Amino acid sequence: MIDYALNFGFICVSLALLMNLWRLTMGPTTADRILAVDTMTINAIALLVMYGIAKGTSMYFEGALLLAMFGFVSTVAYCKFILRGDIIE
After folding, report:
1. What is the pTM of this model?
2. Distance from chain centroid for Cα 81
3. How far apart are CA 21 and CA 25, in angstroms?
4. Which backbone phi and psi does 58 adopt, to 5 degrees?
5. How many other C-beta atoms lie within 10 A of the C-beta of residue 55?
6. Quick check: 59 and 52 in contact, CB under 8 A?
C-alpha cells in the first residue's frame, strides 16, 4: 500500500513542480517569481523525503534538511537584493 501512496505522491509533487516552473517563467511580477522558486524548493524537499522513504535510507533526509536551509537563505538574500539592491551591508 505504501508503494501506491508513494507513486501518487511522486506524481502530485512532480505536477506541482511543473506548475511552479510555469509560474517562474510566466510570473507577471518579481514577487511571483520569488514565491515560485521558494515553492519549488519545498517541492524538491518533498521529493527527496519521499525518495528516502521509498529507498529506506536516512541519507536523503539529511539532504532534504540541507536543501531547506539553503532554500531559506537564498530566498532571504534574493528578497533583500530586490528591496535594497545590495546583499552585504
Report:
1. 0.86
2. 20
3. 6
4. -95, 0
5. 10
6. yes
| DSSP assignment of 32-69 | HHHHHHHHHHHHHHHHHHHHHHHHT-SHHHHHHHHHHH
pLDDT digits (tens, 9 = 90+) for 45-86: 999 999 999 999 989 999 999 999 999 998 888 888 888 877
Cβ(67)–Cβ(41) under 8 Å?
A: yes
- Category of 60 on φ-ψ map: left (φ > 0), alpha (ψ -120 to 50) or beta: alpha
> In which residue are the cell numbers 538574500 written?
77
* Cell matching residue 45: 524537499
- Three cell numbers, residue 5: 501512496
